[in-house]
């Protein structure tokens, strides 16, 4: 199988490899390539590759181009995803809602990645508190698209005391 595992300069290269490994497909069983999303779609539509792994909030222009050219979205689901999450807890099950892409009549199961803002442990508590508050409160409509404020404090690494204070105060005020 010929697969574009990800973009060589993006974060999805590692995700693609982890995804295939969780499904029991060793990287030695596929011919993996690392290409930009645009070039990957060109190669997919030309028949030079079979699968392209794409990350990003839908709808993605490269995915739209691929679908217009006759490609289709593939479900990523099954017990293998639970196994993958044991080793990579920032991954989670997600749905691409029905109608996100043209002629997509049903939701599509996939995998999402939680993103983290990480800082040095020695940063001033008030500065980190202010930064965290600004992230969530200065542009709440944009934050809601990419961040679930309820899940934000549930990270796999220790919270900075300044961020922890913001989340505690936010929870108390609800």
Reported for the largest beta sheet, the result is:
3 strands, parallel
CATH level-two architecture of the largest domain: 3-Layer(aba) Sandwich
Termini gap = 51 Å
- How do the strands of the widest beta sheet line up side by side? 2-1-3
**Residue share in helices?**
40-55%
Instruction: Give me the Rg, rounded.
Output: 19 Å
Describe the structure.
The chain has seven helices and five strands. It is of the alpha/beta class and 174 residues long. The protein folds into two domains: 2-113, 3-Layer(aba) Sandwich (D-Maltodextrin-Binding Protein, domain 2), CATH 3.40.190; 125-173, no CATH class. It has a three-stranded parallel sheet with strand order 2-1-3, sandwiched between helices. Strands 4-5 form a two-stranded antiparallel ribbon. The mean pLDDT is 83.
Secondary structure topology:
Elements: E1 2-6, H1 12-22, E2 31-34, H2 37-46, E3 51-52, H3 61-68, H4 79-87, E4 91-96, E5 108-113, H5 125-137, H6 140-146, H7 161-173
Parallel strand pairs: 1-2, 1-3
Antiparallel strand pairs: 4-5
Helix pairs in contact: 2-3, 5-7
Kindly summarize this structure in a few lines.
With 174 residues, the protein is an alpha/beta fold. Helices cover 41% and strands 13% of the residues. The chain is elongated, with a radius of gyration of 19 Å.
Question: What characteristics describe this protein?
Answer:
2 domains, 7 helices, two-stranded antiparallel ribbon, alpha/beta, D-Maltodextrin-Binding Protein, domain 2, 174 residues, three-stranded parallel beta sheet
């Amino acid at each position: 199988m010929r697969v574009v595992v990800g973009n060589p300069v993006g974060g999805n290269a590692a995700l693609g490899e982890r995804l295939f490994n969780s499904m029991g497909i060793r990287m030695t069983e596929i011919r993996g390539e690392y290409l930009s999303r645009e070039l990957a779609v060109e190669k997919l539509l030309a028949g030079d590759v079979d699968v392209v792994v794409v990350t990003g909030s839908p709808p993605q222009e490269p995915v739209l181009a691929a679908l217009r050219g006759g490609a289709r979205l593939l479900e990523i689901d099954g017990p293998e995803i639970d196994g993958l999450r044991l080793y990579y807890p920032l991954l989670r099950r997600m749905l691409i809602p029905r109608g996100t892409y043209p002629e997509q009549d049903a939701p599509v199961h996939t995998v999402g990645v939680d993103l983290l803002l990480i800082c040095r442990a020695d940063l001033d508590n008030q500065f980190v508190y202010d930064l965290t508050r600004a992230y969530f409160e200065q542009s709440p409509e944009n934050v809601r698209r990419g961040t679930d404020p309820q899940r934000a404090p549930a990270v796999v690494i220790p919270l900075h005391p300044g961020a922890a204070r913001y989340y505690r105060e936010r929870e108390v005020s609800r």
